[in-house]
Design brief:
By secondary structure, the chain is an alpha+beta fold. 14% of the residues lie in helices and 29% in strands. The radius of gyration is 28 Å and the shape is globular. Belongs to the WD repeat DDB2/WDR76 family.
């Protein structure tokens, strides 16, 4: 017994082996009949690991009602034998029903909505205007480690540049609420914009699941919420008043305010649609989408020329570029060009010469195009520049300069005004050496899977001749640069616990907003 197992122990191990063999046989028979799929090792490990189990999060945003998922029915109670053709057919039908339910959630809704139809949470708008009549007129990032600050400003010898650096660096976080309290969307912020009004900061944010959040940052915290030292320390302060809508069924990829109608907001989505929201009448209508809901053409970006508010331009994840006249209801009148074999992540029109536009693509190129000479069969760009890795976005400013962000960890600035862009004739092309960037700035663009891609955004109407743009910083700041590549500021503050990856400038005021993966907003003014 000392050198071996007892008879009792041998019998116990034999019983265990016999039981395991029986269970294995039953499992294999059930899988072959299609009753259930074998779980993946990763899924099993994740389910069993106590470290990976997450506590359910409590959200203040009310979830929309979803169609009930078909429930499984017991084959035993229905009198169906486990290993039979009927059981296999039943399992196939249940699997197909679940797939159809998931597909139905992602199909765009082409109806016209009032805000009450798509309201998720926040302010009820019963008949009132949302904005009011006054609105009509490389390496691992080290969180909170600054790479630009007061010392850099003090060492600036150019008086004008130093003054601008001081001005931009003096922008402060909105004091009324900490960023952790301003949860504008339920999911990750993907795109943002300011309303062009200068009377107050009005921010729009679109998220990963098609929600649209609206924040009026002119509101003040109620005086009753100010506590004294003797009062309870529990956090009972009310959150800021926000409105959350759901006009799309998938990611809101881009948004803009109609330059001629400040009450009209356009949003594009991966659900293949572009919707127009009337902020005064509180309605939302679909302005463009493929003729059938079965056609999947995710839209990556939209833009509109200031002097032609009737034409809407967009790009897709399939590399297409399109134009649609909003005055017609005939969707077959859409004009489109296949400009890339891969995803076009972002594009923009030249603000004052909108026949020129720039595209940024997954094929690693930034291309400059001229609509006046753009063939549908064989579109040829004015010129192109190839980066080492994919280019995320290309943004035009009114001075004829383009800034791009790329996964090669650079911001590239191209000055086409200095190369005579305003005097180019239709069909003008640039050789490869003239398409090289004039300035390159090192910038960590490794966002990973859970942070929205970093995209630079110009201030469209700066109140000085120095052009400037903003972009998120993986150290949890927002960086501001000039068109010469000089850093003007690095905006941060207490309470910022995530990367404000989606950063935008107000058109004319020195207001900057940043959106995070948790749907929260930072505002500097």
């Amino acid at each position: 017994m000392a050198n071996g197992l007892s008879e009792f122990e041998k019998q116990r191990l034999a019983n265990i082996a016999e039981r395991d063999a029986l269970l294995k046989k039953l499992t294999q028979e059930a899988q072959s009949s299609g009753l259930f799929a074998k779980p993946s090792p990763k899924a099993s490990a994740a389910a069993d690991s106590p470290r990976l189990k997450k506590k359910p999060s409590v959200r203040k945003v009310k979830k929309e009602e979803e169609a009930p998922v078909p429930r499984r029915k017991s084959s035993r109670l229905l009198g169906i034998a486990a290993d039979s053709e009927v059981a296999k057919r039943k399992a196939d039908e249940e699997h197909e029903a679940l797939q159809q339910a998931e597909r139905a959630k992602r199909i765009r809704k082409s109806d016209s909505f009032t805000f009450s139809d798509i309201l998720i949470s926040g302010q009820k708008l019963s008949g009132d205007s949302l904005i009011g009549i006054d609105m009509v007129t490389k390496g691992v990032a080290k969180p909170y480690e600054r790479t630009f600050g007061d010392e850099d400003i003090q060492q600036t010898t150019d008086k004008e540049l130093r003054a601008l650096r001081e001005e931009m660096s003096n922008l402060q976080l909105w004091e009324a609420w900490e960023p952790s309290r301003i949860k504008l969307t339920p999911e990750r912020v993907y795109t943002m914009t300011f309303h062009p009004t200068e009377s107050k900061p009005l921010i729009f944010a679109g998220d990963k699941m098609g929600h649209l959040g609206i924040l009026d940052a002119s509101q003040e915290k109620p005086s009753s919420s100010i506590k004294t030292e003797d009062e309870d320390e529990e956090d009972d302060d009310p959150d800021p008043v926000m409105t959350t809508l759901k006009p799309h069924t998938r990611t809101i990829s881009s948004m803009l305010i109609n330059p001629s109608k400040p009450t009209h907001l356009y949003t594009s989505s991966y659900d293949s649609s572009i919707r127009e929201m009337d902020l005064e009448k509180t309605t939302s209508v679909e302005r463009y989408a493929p003729e059938s809901t079965s056609i999947d053409e995710p839209i990556s970006s939209i833009d509109m020329a200031a002097d032609n508010p009737n034409s809407l331009f967009w790009t897709t994840l399939d590399g297409a570029f399109g134009r649609f006249d909003l005055r017609t209801a005939n969707r077959s009148a859409v004009k489109s060009w296949q400009l890339s074999e891969k995803k076009i992540g972002g594009f923009s029109l030249h603000p004052t010469q909108p026949h020129y536009f720039a595209t940024a693509s997954l094929d690693r190129t930034m291309r400059l195009w001229d609509l006046r000479k753009l063939s549908h069969d064989d579109p040829v760009p004015v010129g192109e520049h190839e980066s080492r890795l994919s280019v995320s976005h290309a943004a035009f400013n009114s001075a004829g300069q383009i800034v791009t962000s790329s996964y090669d960890d650079t911001l590239k600035i191209y000055d086409f005004a200095a190369k005579g862009l305003s005097s180019w004739k239709p069909g003008h092309t640039l050789p490869e050496d003239e398409m090289k960037p004039d300035v390159m700035v090192r910038h960590n663009c490794q966002t990973g899977r859970w942070v929205t891609i970093l995209r630079p955004q110009w201030q469209l109407n700066p109140q000085s001749h120095i052009q400037r743009f903003c972009i998120g910083n993986m150290n949890r700041f927002v960086d501001i640069y000039s068109s010469a590549g000089d850093q003007l500021a690095q905006l941060g503050g207490e309470g910022i616990s995530a990367v404000p990856a989606v950063a935008v400038f107000h058109r004319s005021k020195n207001w900057v907003a940043g959106g995070t993966a948790s749907g929260k907003i930072c505002l500097w003014q």
